[in-house]
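Entry 14. Ran structure prediction on the chain below.
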Amino acid sequence: MNKEIETFENPSKTQKKREAAEIQNLGAELTLMQPNELDRLGLDPKLRQTIEEYQKLPNAHGARKRQIQFIGKIMRSCDVDVIKKRISSLGNTNKKTLDEPSLTDELVEKIATEGDAIVNELIANHKNLERQQLRKFQRKISKLHPQNQNEVKAKLRLYLQANIKTE
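Output, structure tokens:
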């Protein structure tokens, strides 16, 4: 007797969750992009509006987290592969992030020395930075001896590189 093994055509619940998390992470990447970059991606108008709403939200009471989840929900009805291809082609043509060590190092040193003045300026120019996080780094650096500041400055450098994009 031959028993045929049933093959499941539908993905498992775990696989569906992984895919949903991946789409949500892609949506989070989109929220970090500048408006001109989003224009070049040719996103669905509803998705674009939701991303703009995210950027206006304060990071209080989980508002941004819920908005990211909503962005992920909207993206499930979009062609995610096309969006990924457009992002990668955009990344190839426009890689003007703070990867330049001199610019990032300069900002780190300004935050360490000038404190609140530069933090306020950065917050005004880059909406995706969090004032509390920058001030936390600034306080830690100011409390440490200059020889022991390297680790905190390295973390600040990574934070800036991940969250600031220039045009």
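Residues 112 and 139 are 8 Å apart (CA to CA). Will compare against last week's run tomorrow.
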